[in-house]
Specification:
By secondary structure, the protein is mainly alpha-helical. The chain has one domain: ABC transporter involved in vitamin B12 uptake, BtuC, CATH 1.10.3470. Helix content is 75%, strand content 1%. The chain has 16 helices and two strands. The chain has helices at residues 3-6, 15-51, 59-67, 80-115, 127-140, 148-166, 175-199, 202-212, 221-240, 242-249, 252-257, 262-284, 290-302, 306-330, 338-355, 358-362, and strands spanning 168-169, 172-173. It has a two-stranded antiparallel ribbon. Strand 1 (168-169) and strand 2 (172-173) form a beta hairpin. Helix 5 packs antiparallel against helix 8 (202-212). The longest helix is centred in the N-terminal third of the chain and has 37 residues, at 15-51. It is globular and about 70 Å long.
Length: 364
């Protein structure tokens, strides 16, 4: 060993450590840049969604409807048809689509990190089916819950709890048992929903079926009023807990060695993810595969660090949902339920994940 190396005092990094630190800083900057680019992608998708539809609007016409609503613009006139289309139909729909994409993709990232399994998401874990049963129960018996959202959240939590505890063997959640339990619980709640549909009258049956198919048909400012605070606040809390989720993804023993209570943290994260899923499902119905595909795509782009996976998955979910909703509105003369589009695109992706090495893809 040379005298120069021996002379390095303790605590001062050598060349190798400095290079490693520089590489780490560069990697984080690159990930942050990718997140910014995903934000630009969401904005572009929102612009395209606002311009697209059966009634053609130009960019200038849309901008004019925004301009005349500025408080300092006086004596401005705007076409009432344009104003109605942009402000009462398309803009609320775009904003709800963004929030729904945020919620489903983030919930999927949380479930995958919490259960250490890249193949789980709200739909596979039975949360969507449980929330569907709660919402259908609220539609059929309006006085049973405070509102539809309460019923969806409550039974979504019941579903994921059953899946979690039934798949836990010798203190561990087997990935295979987790997916099997999710399939079983989903089938159970789907059967219960079928019973409700069978026993309901024509009006309630139409409401349940139309709602379960999933879509942004009736998205309005009222939906944004309660979706925005729940989704944004919940995602912010999850993002703050991102480094803890990183530790939890390494296993319970590693988490305990670093002073983290894995059971308590897992419960908090599951509650937050289920809250978002229940609120989203109660608003727009069941929309499958977003929570599976987007977190996985975010990990491929940003790596396994949940500090970047969470915002990346949320932005990808919003862009993907806006794209699917635009296709649902413009492919044919009538609107296709959104869940049909996401399922057609998501099923082949699930087959790809099943054939790939899950642990290697997940980064664990």
């Amino acid at each position: 060993m040379s005298r120069a190396v021996q002379a390095l005092p303790v605590g001062i990094p050598g060349d190798g450590e400095m290079q490693g630190s520089a590489k780490l800083e560069f990697g984080e900057r690159r990930k942050a840049l990718l997140v910014v680019l995903l934000l630009v992608l969401v904005i572009a998708a929102a612009v395209v969604a606002t311009l697209s539809g059966t009634y053609d609007l130009s960019v200038l016409e849309v901008l004019e409807t925004f301009r005349v609503r500025l408080p300092w613009v006086a004596d401005a006139r705007v076409d009432r048809v344009h104003d109605t289309i942009v402000w009462q139909i398309r803009l609320p729909r775009v904003l709800v689509g963004v929030l729904v994409g945020f919620g489903l993709a983030t919930a999927g990232a949380v479930y995958q990190g919490t259960f250490r399994n890249p193949l789980v998401e709200p739909f596979i874990l039975g949360v969507s089916a449980g929330a569907s049963f709660g919402a259908s129960l609220a539609i059929l018996y309006p006085g049973l819950f405070l509102n539809l959202q309460v019923g969806a959240f409550g039974f979504g939590l019941v579903a994921v709890s059953i899946v979690y505890f039934s798949s836990r063997i010798h203190g561990q959640n087997s990935p295979v048992n987790l997916i099997l339990a999710g399939v079983i619980v989903s089938s159970l709640f789907q059967a219960l929903v079928s019973i409700l549909k069978y026993s309901s009258d024509d009006a309630a049956l139409r409401a349940i079926v139309f709602w379960i198919m999933g879509g942004l048909y009736f998205a309005g400012w009222n939906d944004i009023a309660y979706l925005f605070p729940v989704v944004v606040v919940t995602i912010a809390i999850i993002w703050v807990l991102g480094w803890r989720l990183n530790v939890l993804s390494m296993g319970d023993d590693e988490a305990r060695s670093l002073g983290i209570h894995p059971g308590r943290l897992r419960l908090v994260l599951i509650l937050l993810a289920t809250l978002m899923t229940g609120i989203v499902v109660a608003s727009v119905g069941v929309i499958a595969w977003v929570g599976l595909m987007m977190p996985h795509a975010a990990r491929m782009m940003l790596g396994p660090d949940h500090r970047f996976v969470i915002p990346g998955a949320a932005l990808l979910g919003a862009a993907y949902l806006l794209l699917c909703d635009t296709l649902a509105r413009t492919l044919i003369g009538t609107e296709i339920p959104l869940s049909i589009i996401t399922s057609i695109l998501g099923a082949p992706y699930l087959l790809y994940l099943l054939r790939s090495r899950g642990r290697a893809v997940f980064g664990g």
